[in-house]
Amino acid sequence: MAISYSDANDVRTIMITGRLDVDGANSVSAQLVDLAQNAKKGVVVDLSTLKFLASIGIRALVTSAKAVKGRGGRMALVVDSNSTVMMSIKATGIDQLVPVFGSTPEAEKAAVA
Amino acid sequence: MADPAHDESTSAMDDASLTRTVIVRPGGAPGGSAAADDRAHYLLVVNGAGRGQRIELGDKPLVVGRSKPADLVLDDSQVSRNHCRLTLAMGELFVTDLGSSNGTYVAGRRINQPAFVAAGDRIGIGTHMLEHEWRSRGEVEAASAADDDLEGAKKYVRSLLPERIRDGSVRTDWVLQSSAKLGGDLFGYHFIDPRTFAVYLIDVTGHGADAAMHAVSVMNVVRRASLSGVDARDPARVAGYLNDMFQMDSHGGMLLSLWYGVYDLDGATLSYTSAGHHASYLVGPGRVDALPLGTANVLIGMMPDYAYRSGHAQVPRGSSLYVFSDGVFEIDAGDGREWGIDNFLPLLTAPARSGMTESRRILEAVQDATNRQSFEDDFTLVVATFG
To answer: Which of A32, A40, A112 is nearest to A76 (CA)?
Structure first.
């Protein structure tokens, strides 16, 4: 499991890969919130290659989305529509808080809109 | 501080075989790095009555046996009175069998001469297992304090769980197997009035004593919802009420999912809401299929003023309702294989087993399918059968 990011124009794209499980989730979650909070305007969180989203990861996504919104920015997610991660996103209703897209360009567009 | 295990250990060196074995030493020798400075050797009792007990090993050999004057007494008929002796020599741990009836095992192998015990190895004595830990004292103190907190929280959570209902028009059974880190699962059920039965499950995101504490306070509110003027027969209202009360910004960033259902005995109907929670499933008496009972609502505490919705279903006589947390199907079965809801659901309609509750049958089926006895998250499953 790993977290990385890149800044381009007005968007920071944060990528989380692997399995966001109980043991690894705490540190990755803290990093995610920090990266989202201190980004420029828009934030895209790319979960398209993430295998599993533990509940602490759900909390980190919500906290990040609120932090981005709080400083007047927008956040969008990239999620593979047939994955277990998408199931978690839908079951928790995170898709009603943050727009979810199937590809990075779409999400980036939404994050700067 | 000098590694005490290096000093005064010569008394243990009279056994010549010890010196030969010392050469076999895995990486990370004591005193070899700065991080090792504060480390000490510990024995952790892994199972049995003394489970969780941790003993720091010093310069004095430690004798394990069934009764005094052994230094560590294990109440175990398979343990001999003087069973084995543990000795630190040159900063390493060795165990010597003292002619016990059932033998001493290191990492699964019976020893016939003093044997080296690597950090992480388990020593088998009778039905007991002792694990050799080589850790820093600060870390051990912190771990012990945290374990105590978790154990306390676990006991408290268990004390709040309802009695199983074995007779009557609504019968229940359940399992709640807490994960080592204690997830935030909690459930309950009660009759709101003689003809109305409520059942609910709460799963707080995250792990640990704080998640469990939050689950407890939420459940107390659910239980007393009617007293606060909320119509407990209306699942959407209960969810909305909790959402007003437990917004994450004012509750340490905590979020939770809820499934709440109300069964009306007269109408044989079930009203329900799932708030950030997957569906529960209703299996009819013919056990043909499992009907999902879920509504697409958000987690409690995430969005203020969210309008939660309820769903409704007719319940054929003899149907069973399965309410569960995601810990029953989000399981890492090893080899990178995720075991998921699609694997879990067929278990619900599998044949019942005589003499076994449904919750127990399903727990065992999941353990078999995933090849695990315990899980990373709490495993909570409540089954209510409507007669």
So the answer is: A112
CA angle B187–B193–B198, rounded 5-degree value: 25
Closest residue in chain A to residue B254, using alpha carbons only = A59
Distance CA B339, CA B372 (A): 11
Q: What per-residue confidence (pLDDT) applies to A22?
A: 61
Q: Do the Cβ atoms of A2 and A16 come closer than 8 Å?
A: yes
The tokens for B334 are 């090893």
Q: Hey, which residues 49-78 in chain A have their CB within 8 Å of chain B?
A: 51-52, 54-56, 58-59, 62-63, 66
The token duo for B303 is 């969005």
Contacts of B336 in chain A (CB under 8 A): 19, 51
Average pLDDT over residues A17-46: 81
- pLDDT higher than 90, residue B188: yes
Contact status, residue B341 vs residue B300, Cβ threshold 8 Å: no
Q: Which two tokens stand for residue A108?
A: 């980036």
Cα separation, B215 vs B9, whole angstroms: 51
Q: How confident is the model at residue B38, as a pLDDT?
A: 79
A96 touches chain B (CB under 8 A): yes
Given this model, what pLDDT does residue B28 score?
38
Q: Is residue A90 within 8 angstroms of chain B, CB to CB?
A: yes
pLDDT band at B29 (very low <50, low <70, confident <90, very high): very low
pLDDT at position B8: 37
Q: Encoding tokens for residue B242?
A: 């909790």
Kindly list the residues from chain A whose CB atom is less than 8 angstroms away from the CB atom of residue B299: 58, 62, 92-94
DSSP state of A105: H
Cβ atoms of residues B176 and B161 within 8 Å: yes
Q: What is the CATH number of domain A2-112?
A: 3.30.750.24
CA neighbor of B217 nearest in space, from B156, B304, B130, B305: B156
Whether B210 shows a pLDDT value over 50: the answer reads yes
How many percent of chain B have pLDDT more than 90?
60
Q: What is the pLDDT of residue B247?
A: 96
Cα–Cα distances in Å, from B55 out to A65, B1, B128, B142?
47, 20, 15, 15
Q: Which residue of B has its CA nearest to A58?
A: B205
